[in-house]
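Pasting as-is:
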Amino acid sequence: MTATLAAPAALPMGKALNAALRRAMEDDAKVVLLGEDIGKLGGVFRITDGLQKDFGPNRVIDTPLAESGIVGTAVGLAMRGYRPVVEIQFDGFIYPAFDQIVSQVAKLHYRTGGNVKMPITIRVPYGGGIGAVEHHSESPEGYFAQTAGLRVVSCSNAADANMMLRQAIASDDPVLFFEPKRRYWQKGDVDVTASIEDAYPLHRARVLREGVDATVLAYGPLVATALQAADIAAGEGRSLEVIDLRSLSPLDMDTIAASVRKTGRLVITHEAATFMGIGAEIAARVQDQCFYSLEAPVQRVGGFTVPYPPAKLEEYFLPDADRILDAVDRTLIGPA
C-alpha cells in the first residue's frame, strides 16, 4: 500500500482528483475503479495515472468500450458491497449507459425498500472549451439532475474537486460527479490530508464573492467565468455576489435565496442550453421563494438550443464574461 501524498502548495484540478482517488482507495479496500483506458494509460486526461501500478489491475480495471456494460458491472459490484468509481471517458459517451443509470442505479435502493445500497460514483468529464469534436464537449447534467434517486454535483476548482470526490465515494447514494474538463489544468491550493468529516458539506452552495448589486450563480466550468465578470463589473463600480452552486441535485436553495433577498437580482449561467436547463428550475424556485425581494426578472445565460458546434465555433456558443455582464445590465437597467 502506498503512503498518502503530502499536501503540496498547489495542484492542478486533474492531480487533485487523482489524489482523491488514491486516498479513497487507501482508506477503503472496497473502492474499485472501472473505465476505458484508465489503467496503464491513466485515462485520456491522466486522472487515474499511476493508480493501476500501485493498486493492481483488480482494483483499477480497464474495461471494454461499452458504457452500459461498465455501469452494469458497477451495479453488480455495489450489490456485493463494493464502492465502484466509474469513469465515463467523455460526456457524450454517457448515453449508452443512460438506461442503466436511470432504470437501475437511480432506483434499486428505492425498489428494494432500502435494503440494497448503490454507493456508485460516476465521474463525467464534461463541457466545452478544449477544441474537441461532437460528443466530447457536451453538458448532459440536466438529464440526471431531473432523475430521482441520483445525487448530481459539479466541482469548479482543485480543492473542491479533491474533497467533493472523496465525499461522493464515501456516500451510500449514487453520485454523478461532473468534472469541468477545461479546468483540469488550473491550479489551486489543496490539502490532500484534510479530514472528510470536517469538510464543507457536499450539497451546500458556496458564496465565493460577496456583493450587493446582483447575484451571479454558476457551477462547474463557468464559475471562473462568473468571477472574471465580477472583476470587470467591480471596475465599473458594480458589486456582484458570485455563488458556486456545487450541487445540482439536491439544490441548496437556502444559500441562493438568502443572496437574492440581499441583492434583489439574479443571473444564472451554465454551458448547457438554457431551454429546460438547471437554470430554469432555479429561476422558478427563486420567483416562488423570493418574489417580493426581486427587483428585476431572473436572467439566464447558457448555451444555445443547438447541437454542440464544431471547435472553431465553440467560442460563440459558450457563455463568456461579456454575455454574463450583458445579463447583469438587463437586471440593473432593463433591456437595451
